[in-house]
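pasting Phospholipid-transporting ATPase for the record, 1406 residues
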Amino acid sequence: MLKRLKFWERPEPQVCARQVFVNEPLPPSKLDKKGRPRQRYVTNKITTSKYSIFSFVPKNLYEQFHRVANFFFLLLVILQWFPEFATINPIVAALPMFIITGVTAIKDGFEDFKRHVTDRSVNNRMTWTLGNWTNYNYPNSTSKFFSFRSKNSEKLNEKEGPKWKETMFRHVRVGDFIKLHNDDFIPADILILSTSEPNSLCYVETKNLDGETNLKIRSSVPEIDHIETPEDCTSIRFFIDSQPPAPNLYSYNATLVFPDGLPDRPRSRGPTKIPVNLNSLLLRGCVLKNTEWVIGLVVFTGTDTKLALNSGETPSKRSQIERLMNPQIIANLVIMTLMCVWCAVGTRVWEGGFSDLDPPYLASADNLSYNAFMTFWNALICFQNIVPISLYLSMEFVKSVQAFFIFMDKEMHYGVTDTPCIPKNWNLSDDLGQIEYMFSDKTGTLTRNVMEFRKCSIGGRVYGEYTSNKGGGASEAENELVKKPFTDKELLIDMQSADQLKSGTIKDFFTLLAICHTVLVSTNSDGEPQYKAQSPDEAALVQAAKDVGYTFRSRESDSIFITTPEGEKVHYELMNILEFTSARKRMSIIVRNPLNGHIILFCKGADNVIFERLRIGQDYIANVTGEHLEEFAREGLRTLCLGYTEISQEQYAKWNFEFREASTALNDRDKRLATVYDKIEKDLILLGATAIEDRLQDGVPECIATLKRAGIKIWVLTGDKMETAISIGFSTCLLNREMNLIIIRGGAYGEPGSAYEQMRNAVEKFFPSDLDILESAKAPPVVPNYNGSRPSMSHTREMSFGGISLFSNLSNANRPGGYALVIDGSALKYTLEESFSRSLLLDLACRCKGVICCRVSPLQKAKVVELVKEGKQAVTCAIGDGANDVSMIQAAHIGIGVAGEEGLQAVMASDYAIAQFRFLTRLLLVHGHYAYIRNSSLILNFFYKNMIGVGVLFWFQLFDGYSTTVVFEYTYTLFWNLFFTCCAVLAIGVFDRDVPDRVAIEVPELYQWGMKKKGYTMAIFFIFLLEGVYQSLVCFFIPYFAYGLGSVNASGHQPDYLELGTEMAAACITVANLFNGFNAECWTVFHFIAVFGSIGLFYIYVAIYSLVPDMPDSGIYGFNNIVYRSAVFWFCIILSIVISILPRFLWKYWQRNYLPTDVDIVKEVCKEDLQYDFLHDSRFNPTLGLYKNLTHESALSGQESSVPIYTDGIFTHTPRPSFTTERSSSATSGLHVITHSLEQFSGGEVPETPASMTFMRTGITSPMRGYAFSQEEGTGRIMAPPLRRRKTNPGPLGRVFRMETSPIRRMSLPDVRASADVTDAIIGEERIRMVQFRESSSTNTSNIHSRRESESLDESDLIQPRLTSSSEPIVAMEVINEDVNDNIDEGNTNINQEKDTDNTDQEMTE
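structre below
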């Protein structure tokens, strides 16, 4: 019923399929009785605002009355209209509530008005649609009732004919023909009919949807790609059978139905159906690129588009403190109810004792129960201040000022674009200080979408110097987005060298970069080529070749044109392109050299796939290049290897025949092509390697490292590919080289290698002693039977002596850097759908120090945020810059939009808008931390100061016969919250702070005070209430006993109750203001004015008010001469102050001296030296006492141990890591603990431990080397890394020993060489698990064997696996001394290369 009343909510999207008719009248079955279309389509208007003109009042009131206090205030207003309860005019009594709700409504309306402005700017964008033409999917525009649906329609003019006209986005309709031009935003989901490019292709930028900056290729429907003119659009007849609107960004199915056949074919053929998929659909939010024009047909509009379905409705958010206020208000209401019941019962008992005497002061002695009932409601009005209505108005004022401070903060102002930090939701400032989980997009949020060529290794020599621009020390002008050309003096010298081998290698290297790609080129007005690529890496490589002199000019279907540094024009005949795929990890191009006619294959790809395809005899250059790759990887650069080979004419002719056969095959085309590619991509000559930097935004690594020190868990949710996401993880300090990466990829439960099974295996492998996570995982359902082989994960998740554990510091289960979880979108899809997998994912992810979700859709991002928000009950924050981030921004408690290059969608839906990711440091650690402290203290002190006043009124009822008489003069109560006690708490809410802003950033651990909610809890709330009750007792009974035992004033009269009430009011107001000031974290001039000004204001008011004669309802005339001359008056005030504040003073004294918090310690340091340098003090330990209370999850995730900041009077410190020297280490606090443990392991030398990657689908653990093109599970193999150059002569061979094992498979293990001492260590710590193998060896394996046969010098460094008979139960293990890690990794290369085919013959035999 309540849902029906909420008429402002948007209707659910239509889930039925739709038929869109083009130049085809609708059949009668599609029309209603009045001849109008049954199918109704939503408009193309996009709305991110919460309110409309009609829904503003009811919806805003509905949201405001979520506050329990507002119902109470409404009840009081209603009571005031009854004469029996009226204390003042009912209209005057209702004014406070009207003012508060009105001010809140105005503020909410102003915030939403800004959203309307941005919505209007998007909806009023212009595009081109077909005019003077009939769209049969809509009713006739002449219909009066439906005229508002056809605002852009016009009367047909048959003389002019159809033509293109400009139309606003919001007027685009389903079934409209639309024409887009280059760089146009796509206004709706559009089916491509034809394009200006050959083969009807077009290029689209989808970063607003999936975060990827590379261009995507889309194509039109081939059967109708002849459409070019408006006349062509009106002459074709068909309709579209489309699936209903769906949020899946990667799937779409529809059918084009031509009732009379295709236009260029005989009609006698009858209806023709053409299938259409996502490849022919342009989605709203994308941008058309490098295409002159596209003609399409609108299929989905407005809220039916995939972008809108992934965004959701703008939610109404309330802060955590405000949510906690509801139970506190209820507690106060319960206390007030008990007080009213006490007064009612007391009235009944007290009056009952005098009822026989019939006293005249009893209104009705005959009905004592009625008197008690009336007393209850009068007491409710008397004690109403226990729930302060002015608290909400004060909070709105304070939060507005805090929003103003954020807006005016110059340190969050981005000068390059003149963009400040804009608070769009003023209610959430205190939530900024409680964030525990942060979810961040990658593209455009962490990165700049800019790739720069930094270094290269050519012929064993490194060229180029790497200078990181990721720090925050440079000025904004220096860090402005400027690409510098790649130059190196030594490179230019070597290019002109007389050494033909050296100069020739450099020439071939940059020639490869200039021609081996799929880059598109255009020419600007200056004649300079401009490059656009599907991958930003490719554009950077081609640009680097251009910087050196090898300029890519143009590409035809059969040739590539470049110019050399000498100005020579070279035309290469393009023969074949072997495309890049995520499985191949490489791209090749076959060309004919114009100089000698030789056929050359140029290949670029991941280091592992290139090295295994090298020609025999290149071990030295491979070793040197491998070391350079290691160096590039340590610097966070994206690596790529280059090679080439010459092909004979006969070999090419034979291969090309096989290639054409495979490319035209109807079955298994991709698999056959991959096999053919492998036959030609071999015997490569290594040219070198490239290193590209994916430029981050300024200060991103420092910001993430600081936020991690503050205890915030950062998750990266991106639509980008896995290796790119991992690369950015290392560059941004989210990941470090001491971590073990847990890779989860899989499908639904019950399928081979399901996501649930992988997560379960990860728990058993890495957290075997954590019973909590094992018990929390719910029992899954029964596994369905599958007709195929299913690998046993229990035996593949741990390797025996595959060498991976040896390479990764003996045990990957106890790495010093903890763990990081990387999960892809396919695994996440099923995990979020399965309840038992959801809980396991949440528990596993929360035990990891970093989480990366890649290839996720916008809706999946929102579901991940909701999973953590609901499962952990923690405050979450989402930050992004594109339309694909809107859903998670709206799902999180706080959404932050980055005003970047991806439009305004994220900013429009956000709560705060910033220009740079690095501003999060100040936004959270300074403004968020301050807002939490200020708002918490404001609310607690507000409840306290009202409790002390109400308490005095209640104690007076014990002595006035429970008559609900107010002991104070009425104006004292009226101005209590307005003038006398509010200024001090407002000063706290606006100006209070525990430490200076500089210190809040330098010591980010202080942020955990708000994250752990230590400043505002129910316990603290009741402590303040009890202090209010205690102080009300003091302020009541001291004046009561002083005046009630025969005190006589200067005129010789005993004081009446108003004089007593003035004494009590003066004591309460003075104590309340001083107590509020005592609770302030700092004292500024504003605090001083507010506290003492409020106290002085009361005494001045009494003095002035008592001079006014004949004041209605006033009995304090002349009090200035009575109370101010009385020594008892001043003595009672002083005594009340001392006794009231003494307990709090004693507690604070003991706590600060004997149980200090981290804030207390830092404040003492600042008090001794305000300019104390916390940042660069080498003795300062960044891990404060708050880290002593580590959670069980953080302990299991490898969280480093810590020590208190203050020990035995000495401050202990640890230097903060340098981001320029070792960025990966900066993300790990307590680095000295890790170093110490490694020193113990290695005997004083800290080994260089690369991050390891564990693919839970296969159980394989391998070192993480190349970032951008590192191995990715899915190819079924792990390639051999390059051999390291030997630095010492090989020692003698170690002893040979044999190990007895039980044959648990049909295939036995290969012999693996390992160092004896290292092997013994592993035997003592890890169980031995077997690995499955294939019998047949692949071509790649034979290549590696052929390489090894020629390596006589380094033969001892290599593993020599040999397959033994299946019945042999013994595995022989030969031992050598050196290069164990490389050897074992090499051995696993062969093992896993043999696992690349089906598993039907690999079932285990128990």
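The longest helix spans residues 920-957.
The two ends are 61 Å apart (CA to CA).
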